[in-house]
Amino acid sequence: FAAATGLADSIEQIYQAGALRMAIVASSAEELQSKAALATKQIANPAARGLLAEKGIFYGERTDRPQVAFLFPGQGSQYAGMFRSLVDNFTPAAEAVQRVDAVMSRLGLPTFSQLAWEEGDALGSDVYLTQLSLLAADTVMYAALEAMGVRPDRLAGHSFGELAALVAAGAWSYEEAAKATKIRCEAIEGC
Fold first, then answer.
1. Which are the contacts of 103, defined by CB distance < 8 A and separation ≥ 6?
2. Which of 138, 152, 173, 179 could form a disulfide with 164 if both were Cys (CB 3.0 to 4.6 A apart)?
């Protein structure tokens, strides 16, 4: 009980010291208490930041709003039926599918529902259709999150997800990314 009280007091002192977020790496309650006490004593000393980090104590300024990052996944995150429930039950997602499908139709490509719902068995085996379905799915999810007021401060993509990140960032249109997907897949298959 005394250890928990001491820890609570240390955390309260750290909180009162300023607008901070803190992470402490500890393998036991005792180590956590010791590091919290150290942080309490040194948090106001900017020169101690490096020493604290070496000891597994990390902190930074709190912001009014936490930073949000979106990471768009690469191939392997696809599954048959992906986002069907979202599209059926959330109007902004359904509207995003309509926009995606309009581009796909204009390019002579299968629609999102054909790729992800009707021909779901091709996902994972046909590189081009799989990556095209991921681009569409990422675009739909991004639109749904935007409709809910979730706005990213940072965008990144893992592997093929980089193309969806470029669309989300406004650097490429969906059509440009769909065309680049074909070129990318041809290059992969040519290796």
1. 174, 175, 178
2. 138
Is-contact 139 96, C-beta < 8 A?
A: yes
CA distance 155 to 166: 8
pTM of the model: 0.66
Element (H, E) at 155: strand 154-157
The per-residue DSSP string of 50-106 comes to HHHHHTTEEEEE--SS---EEEE--TT---TTTTHHHHHH-HHHHHHHHHHHHHHHH
Phi, psi (rounded to 5 degrees) for 51 = -60, -45
Question: Could you give the percent of the chain with pLDDT greater than 90?
Answer: 46
Q: How confident is the model at residue 132 (pLDDT cuts 50, 70, 90)?
A: very high
Q: Is the pLDDT of residue 155 over 50?
A: yes
Distance CA 55, CA 57 (A): 6
Whose CA is closest to 69, among 168, 152, 159? 152
Indicate left, alpha or beta for 154 from its phi (over 0: left) and psi (-120 to 50: alpha): beta
**Other CB atoms within 10 Å distance of the CB of residue 55:** 18
What's the mean pLDDT in 108-128? 83
The separation between the first and the last C-alpha atoms of the chain, rounded to the nearest angstrom, is 63
Torsion 167-159-83-142 (CA) sign: negative
